[in-house]
């Protein structure tokens, strides 16, 4: 038995468990559990990835200059204030590593993404969970929870797994009212699904203590490649770059992300299909007695009468080869999170939930 002890926060972490991708004995599963883009990435991204494969003996560049310039141009942001990471997960880790630690508190909301707690504990900080109101981030509850020890506040907008959105006015109020010693992190993993929303970029421009994270894993269909980015004040970016590994993104990641960014037609098609199928699925399930909040993302949070019913429905769907996400770990045991798939998958999951509820839709 080793005498070496990890720092105390580590043993409070339950390792992250991702959505399953297979069901034993079922050949063609429909996977609607990880908020992936059912249409995949742009073909241009796949081609760029393959082209980069010819240079595998070369180290990648360390500064991601070309990718940052492309992100900056598209979103009208200063590329020098952008940092790229291995998924936005890595950017979240950098933030906790640099700005929290023993003696500090990291605030996240009741149904917030599990990586906030994991990264805070890994940094030796104390995670502080604050209540939401009816599956919606509550700015007053966050402000109430802030202490002298608070270093970071994480807010996902639109939320996961809720799909709900805090209004721009409320976000602005939060940014304005938080004390200077707190960095507000706006996690924009699902921003691309909200046409015209800047994810909080304007607030970052206005306040040095606001930061925004984004990802290529959702709308850009590159979850398997692991690319995310963050935008913040120049001095925050300088701090984060000190802990970033020099070669954290391969050339294949950088090239694919840049190509994906340029294919605006693909993004527009995925956005309109998501919007159309999300309304269709929400309505179909509501007719079956399974309501959901209006979702602003690429999934809906289907609410069942009880945790038992949600668990039974999940098991039934699995038997039918459909994988959705149980979200009991996010404080929502009576809900299932269902990613918006392509049309056939949406119809199939609605049909099977209809069968589960006892009437074929
Ligand atoms: N934030 C939120 C709210 C998410 O749902 C996810 C993906 N599950 C992430 C961040 C991390 O995404 P990635 O690391 O793939 O960029």
Automatic annotation (TrEMBL):
List each coiled-coil range: none
Q: Which family does it belong to?
A: Belongs to the class-II pyridoxal-phosphate-dependent aminotransferase family. Histidinol-phosphate aminotransferase subfamily.
Subunit and partners: Homodimer.
Q: Which UniProt keywords apply?
A: Amino-acid biosynthesis, Aminotransferase, Histidine biosynthesis, Pyridoxal phosphate, Transferase
- CDD domains, alphabetized: AAT_like
The prosthetic group or cofactor this protein requires is: pyridoxal 5'-phosphate
**Residues annotated as domain Aminotransferase class I/classII large:** 28-352
Catalyzed reactions: L-histidinol phosphate + 2-oxoglutarate = 3-(imidazol-4-yl)-2-oxopropyl phosphate + L-glutamate
Pathway where this protein functions: Amino-acid biosynthesis; L-histidine biosynthesis; L-histidine from 5-phospho-alpha-D-ribose 1-diphosphate: step 7/9
| Name of this protein | Histidinol-phosphate aminotransferase
Protein's GO biological process: L-histidine biosynthetic process
Among InterPro entries, the record links this protein to: Aminotransferase_I/II_large, HisP_aminotrans, HistidinolP_aminotransfase, PyrdxlP-dep_Trfase, PyrdxlP-dep_Trfase_major, PyrdxlP-dep_Trfase_small
* N6-(pyridoxal phosphate)lysine PTM sites in chain numbering: 218
Name of the gene encoding the protein in the UniProt record? hisC
Q: What is its EC number?
A: 2.6.1.9
- Gene Ontology MF, one: pyridoxal phosphate binding
- Organism source for this protein? Aliiroseovarius sediminilitoris
């Amino acid at each position: 038995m080793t005498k070496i002890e990890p720092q105390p926060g580590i043993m409070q972490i339950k390792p992250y468990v991702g959505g399953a991708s297979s069901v034993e004995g079922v050949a063609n599963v429909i996977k609607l559990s990880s908020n992936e883009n059912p249409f995949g990435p742009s073909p241009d991204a796949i081609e760029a990835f393959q082209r980069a494969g010819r240079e595998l003996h070369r180290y990648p560049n360390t500064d991601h200059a070309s990718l940052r310039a492309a992100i900056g141009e598209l979103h009208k942001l200063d590329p020098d204030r952008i940092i790229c990471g291995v998924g936005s997960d890595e950017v979240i880790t950098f933030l906790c590593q640099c700005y929290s630690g023993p003696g500090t508190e990291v605030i996240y909301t009741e149904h917030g993404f599990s990586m906030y707690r994991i990264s805070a504990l890994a940094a030796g900080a104390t995670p502080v969970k604050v209540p939401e109101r009816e599956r919606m981030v509550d700015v007053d509850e966050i402000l109430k929870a802030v202490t002298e020890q608070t270093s970071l506040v994480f807010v996902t907008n639109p939320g996961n797994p809720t799909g709900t959105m805090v209004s721009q006015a409320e976000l602005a109020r939060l940014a304005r009212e938080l004390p200077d010693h707190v960095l507000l992190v706006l996690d924009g993993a699902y921003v691309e699904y909200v046409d015209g929303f800047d994810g909080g970029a304007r607030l970052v421009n206005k306040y040095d203590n606001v930061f925004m994270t984004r990802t290529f894993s959702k709308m850009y269909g590159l979850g398997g490649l692991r690319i995310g980015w963050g935008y913040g004040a120049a001095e925050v970016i300088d701090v984060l770059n000190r802990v970033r590994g020099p070669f954290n993104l391969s050339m294949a990641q950088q090239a694919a992300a840049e190509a994906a960014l340029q294919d605006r037609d693909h993004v527009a098609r995925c956005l309109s299909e998501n919007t159309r199928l999300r309304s269709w699925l929400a309505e179909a399930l509501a007719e079956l007695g399974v309501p959901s909040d209006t979702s602003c993302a690429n999934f809906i949070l289907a609410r069942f009468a009880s945790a038992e019913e949600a668990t039974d429905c999940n098991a039934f769907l699995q038997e039918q080869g459909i994988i959705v996400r149980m979200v009991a770990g996010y404080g929502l045991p009576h809900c299932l999170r269902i990613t918006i798939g392509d049309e056939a998958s949406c119809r199939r999951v609605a049909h099977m939930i209809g069968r589960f509820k006892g009437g074929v839709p």
